[in-house]
Amino acid sequence: TNRTFTMIKPDAVQDGNSGSIIKMIEEAGFRIVALKKTQLTPERAGQFYAVHAERPFYNDLCKYMSSGQIVPMILEKENAVADFRTLIGATNPANADEGTIRKLFAKSIEANAIHGSDSDENAEIEGNFFFGGLEQF
Ligand code: GTP
Ligand code: MG
């Protein structure tokens, strides 16, 4: 098995959808390795999304991602990164397949309910951003 990293974003936490989303994740066969509820500062959101620093939406993204509590998690499954991206659906919920987490819960291309790592390498970096080694069993 391998691992991916996710966080339920502020819009979905605020709307009370964390439980429904976690249920979908577990029903899809992912084991929750680590989980907590926390809030990012704009600076820390900027570090997390540093890869997007040159994008026009970067400042809005940092503001949004620090606007409320989030639920970061490390997840484990066969083919975790790709299968999780399938489960969450396209970045823009207008393009997300029926039954995906973003189709069900996302509000817009920005407030899109959930994050999923895009590679094994980034999954490890992102998991380590939120969780210490002793939390990752
Ligand atoms: P993540 O799982 O959150 O990384 O989303 P993604 O991999 O599907 O998309 P990407 O990494 O390209 O973008 C990161 C996040 O920036 C998205 O999830 C959105 O919250 C936001 N974002 C992406 N594109 C746009 C855009 O065109 N406008 C705005 N306002 N936000 C965007
Ligand atoms: Mg991404």
Annotate the secondary structure layout.
Blueprint: E1 2-8, H1 10-14, H2 18-27, E2 31-35, H3 42-48, H4 58-65, E3 71-77, H5 80-88, H6 101-105, E4 114-116, H7 120-130
Antiparallel strand pairs: 1-3, 1-4, 2-3
Active site: 115 (pros-phosphohistidine intermediate)
Family: Belongs to the NDK family.
InterPro entries: NDK-like_dom (IPR034907), NDK-like_dom_sf (IPR036850), Nucleoside_diP_kinase (IPR001564)
Describe this structure in words.
With 137 residues, this protein is an alpha+beta fold. Helices cover 40% and strands 16% of the residues. It has one domain: Nucleoside diphosphate kinase-like domain (Alpha-Beta Plaits), CATH 3.30.70. The chain is built from 7 helices and 4 strands. The protein has a 4-stranded antiparallel beta sheet. Helix 3 packs across helix 4 (58-65). It starts with a strand and ends in a 7-residue tail after the last helix. The site of guanosine-5'-triphosphate has 11 residues, from helix 4 and strand 4.
- The CATH topology name reads Alpha-Beta Plaits
Count of separate structural domains: 1
- Portion of residues within helices: 40-55%
**Overall form:** globular
Cofactor: Mg(2+)
Organism: Dyadobacter psychrotolerans
GO molecular function: ATP binding; nucleoside diphosphate kinase activity
Keywords: ATP-binding, Kinase, Nucleotide-binding, Phosphoprotein, Transferase
